[in-house]
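Marked as duplicate of an earlier ticket. Keeping the data here for the record.
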Amino acid sequence: MKKQWKRLAALSSAVIMAAGTLLYFPTDTLQNISWGITASAEETGAETWNEDDLTWTLTADGTMTISGTGAMKDYITDNSPATKKKDSVKKVVIEDGVTSIGTSAFQHCSSLTDISIPKSVTSIGNYAFYDCSSLTDITIPGSVTCIGENAFSWCSNLTSIEIPSSVTSIGNRAFSGTPWLTSKQNENPLVIVNGILIDGTTCSGKVTIPDGVTNIGDSAFYDCSSLTDITIPGSVTCIGENAFSWCSNLTSIEIPSSVTSIGNRAFSGTPWLTSKQNENPLVIVNGILIDGTTCSGKVTIPDGVTNIGDSAFYDCSSLTDITIPGSVTSIGNGAFYNCTGLTSINIPEGVTSIGNDAFYNCTGLTSINIPEGVTSIGTSAFYNCTGLTSIEIPEGVKSIEGFAFFNCTGLENIKIPKSVTSTEYFAFQYCTGLTSVTIPKSVTSIGTDAFSGCDNLTVYLEGGSTLTSKNFGEVANKVVTRWNEGDLTWTLDADGTLTISGTGAMKAYDTDDSPATQKKDNVNKVVIEDGITSIGDYAFDSCSNLASIEIPSGVTSIGIGAFQNCSSLTDITIPESVTSIGDYAFFGCRGLTSITIPESVTNIEGFAFYYCTGLTSVNIPESVTSIGGSAFSGCTGLTSINIPEGVTSIGASAFSGCTNLTDITIPDSVKSIGASAFYNCTGLTSIEIPEGVTSIGGSAFSGTPWLTNKQKDKPLVIVNGILIDGTACSGEVTIPDGVTNIGACAFYNCTGLTSINIPEGVTSIGGSAFESCTGLTSINIPDGVTRIGSSAFFECAELTSIKIPSSVTSIGEGAFDNCDKLPEITVSCDSTLTKDAFGDASEKVKYRHSLVKTDAKDATYTEDGNVEYWTCENCKKYFLSDETDTEAAKEVELSATVKPVLVQVATATTQIKCVYGQDMDDINLQDYVKNADAVGEVSVKVATGSTMLDGMQLDGNKLSGKPAKVYTDGKDVTFTFTAKNGNTADLTLHFLVAKADPTVKVTVDGDSHTEGDLVEKLGLSISKDSTKGAAKIVSKLKKLIAGKNTLAWEFTPEDSENYNVVTGTVVVNAQTTTTTTTTTTTTTTTNETTSTTKATTATSGTTSATKATTVTSGTTATTKATATTNETTATTEETTATSGTTVTIEETTTINETTVTTEETTTNETTEGTTTTNGTTATTEETTTTSETSATTGETTTNETTATTEETTTNETTATTEETTTTNKTTAATEASTVTTNETITTTGTTSATKATTATTNGTTSATQTTTTTKESTTASETTMTTSASSTESTAATSATTITTATTTSVTNIADEDLCSWALNDYLKKTGVIAVNAEITARSEEACEITLTDENGNVLDIYTVDPKTGTGTDSSNAEVNLPQTGNNSMTNWLLCVGAALFMAFGFGAVKASGILKRKEDE
């Protein structure tokens, strides 16, 4: 029976708590929960509910899908979309984005078998799946941290639950009645999940909770009557509510010091608690007072207690007084629930929170002190504390929770701090003793019926509060708004009377910001008390119900919009103290019929009486000097108005739309009439405009009969020099002189206007002056115009050009917008306007110069010239082209246009070749000045930092002397040229100083030698006149042989830095007593055939080298030469055909003296005894072999065209000239004695002739052959042969002597004029530009520089080419081939024809001249 009573008591308690919970929800909240669901049926049969940010959709197959983002609402049983359709829901899919599953969301869904929970969900609410009897398994994602009470209880088929480690909180009986829990209990009576002991109700006897458990869950051992003893480990920190309640045999509990939280009634109904109570009525565990229900009278809680636990003194009606120590920080839920005997309580400063129901029904409590540290007061904290008369809520409390002071009938006043933002449902309901409460403006939310039943209450809203009487439900009529605005107080009574009291000026407000406008629908009357000096801006804006106002005499000003749109205001008296009435002061006061403006007012501001349609008359006092824009616009009831003398300006639209106004006289004092001042005054037929008016705005009189009559007289309506209207014009219009201002809208929408001439006197073009003139194509704005108004040319669709002079300093907004065909707005370069001034048309703006051309002028001897240039008339800047666009034009300084008389010298380093110690040809440096005709004679000096070549002197412009030092790598000397005009230029000459050949005469000591003498024993003597040095024999011959021995010697000068080592030969006669027979054997090795003969050598396609030795009494030079021929030699009878020829000689011919002279270069070589050319070697002992051009026969040998004699062979053709000699091939043959003289001079850059002389003495001649080959030029040889018998100028043949003239080939430079001409042609072909002049400005052996210029002397290009081939590069390093690209094809053809004619007829002429004769003819 006792057990049943306990269960009944527990059940009753649960029912009461559930009912109390329902009471906590305000009516509107319950409504939202119960009826906040909206469903719609779609064609598919699906049902949809929109629940805040989530959408619930149930399809015909029973699938309920929840989509959206955010938390799911909390529901009451059977009120969620799912529970509404609980029999139909079979599957639930919660989409990603949903963050929680709400309370009772799927409660009683008995058909639900499948649920999908996304990872976005973090909590599962109370009763979420309660009694889902068909649900068999569920997987909870790792994102969930909290599972609410009874979340899965009585899911009678739920056998499998996956609970992740993320779950840290599991509510009371979360899994009760599930097979899963039963299975867990069978495994272990202590069911533990993630350290939370959620069930131990099947335990018995003595139980030890294992270490690692941190939380003993709510009702974990509830009603476990078999439990007798329990040990709690040190890991536990929290014991949940009812954890061990009604464990009727639990006598021993070990609670470790680690426990810091013990839930409500955790040990109720246990022998252990009874035992503790018997020991001490205050049961304290680890600083937590968990029970004091057996206390009575006055109680003092000991120091050290930190927490008065939940229900600690629950229903302790005997408790009359309690002292709480300073160590307490929190008072738990229901701590003093129904302690009806408690009369007062002092809460210490350390307490920060007062729990729900903390002082519930403490009817004897008359006073309580809540400390400043408290930040939260729980629901029903002082519920039904009827004895409580006053309470002060501390700053820091954010919210007054529901039922907090419910039915506190004795409460007379309460102060709500400014920290509070909300007062929840029923917070002060039935506080019948409460007479006044001030709600701070911080409060933005008042809960349902928060003050209902407070019959004696007056609610004062703090000024600036967003709350209205509507927020207060049934006490709305008790709400009084009070604002403290500086030194003034505004009080709005419930009857709509707004009283303003205090002293000083009223604040200036923004629209809807003043106290009156905040309550504009409630304000019916305004009373401004004495002491107030001004009415602030927008003070009563839009108080549409305001019908009456009292303004005291102390007010001096009425602010902007003060009574704007007070449409119910019919009458107002403005006191004489008022001196100013602001803009919009009475704007839209349509009920005003008349108004008297006091004499103290000087200005009527803009829109002051705009659209006061009921106004029939206005008295404007003499004190007024200006009428603002739109001051009386739209006053359709106004029939007449007197503008007093003294008014100087009438603002824009001041009287526009005053349709009943018939005439008006404008006083002489008026100077300006604003735009649209009398626009659309359709009854206005007479207007008197005085001459003093200097400014009339656009459309000032448009829409008036007066203007229509003026247009009929003349399309251009002009008043005092102002063109105010031309809209009736068409075609071409000329504005007459005298007009200074084209008024705003003067030609607005004048589509027939095609062109207009504006006189020079116009200074201003008004706004919209030519707007929508769609026929206007161009316009010339004269200099002098300073302003172009807004939209002046807006939508001039056909306008194609316009130029803005620099005088314009102001461009209005949109002046050129929508001018679609206007490609460019030309603005003077010196304009102060920026592109931004043109707004949307800024991209069309081009700043341009006004250019004047200055023609080019060449420089003279004494005066500088100039290139062609342009000067801007506006900005005075200079340019080298006629480009006017300021962005593209490249400004230059005036100096850049000057063409000075500069000294122009060769631009490349010029090379000079000379020889040490030899006089150099004088160099006139004036010759290097390219423009000597312009600058005249220059003076020359060695440039600073440069030094003169040793041994050279500069005399004026002449450079001469003998180099005194060798510079084989060259030395640069820079000279500074100074013209008479002071201009200078530098020229660098590169001197190559070669070593000199020493002067040397060498003889053999003694003159008697015999065969066999050792050569190395012979001594050499050097003449006294010789250069100092030493000579030695270098011949390979070891011993002398009988007869003449030719020995080679080498001379090494002491001054090796300046002189070359040279070689020579001497002839030594050796006597012998025996007869010596000498046999000469010649061996020639060729590419194809080698043969050895005693007297004759035959070669085919071979070349042999000839060695010649010369004994000189002066300077000895030994040279070797090879000539290349183009033809083939044919032999007859005993002769072998050769392309080169081997000559065999039986005797040695000695030349006593041979002189070789060249203009620039002499090449001396010595060949030992074997010479290899073209892969062929010829070896001789006493035989001279000539290369390429010789033949040996016993009788006669000829080439191609052959003349045959017994002893003489002559060349087929020999041509000798002073400058050029061409030898195709030469053949010579001797039987006994042969004299051969060959000499070739090679010149670089210049063709020169070389003379050679061969002397024969003592009947013996030695031949010297010299050949030098260059690329494309030929140097002629002039040969003189001297014998003991005769001397001839051309080639001669005798029976005893044969003269052979060898082929001499050299390459000369292309003529300068050809190179220059070809360069001009090449440049024209490449660029299409004609270069006027080409000249060679620098030259060396390897290259010359050709400078191409235009007619003004400007350099177009510079070619650097080889003077022999004409090939090279231009200044961009592109290749050029002047003979190919620059030469005229006809010239080439003529040259070829000339060459052919010469070949055809030249040989015949030579033969006819007698140069070639047969032996028989001699």
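See parent ticket for discussion. The radius of gyration is 65 Å.
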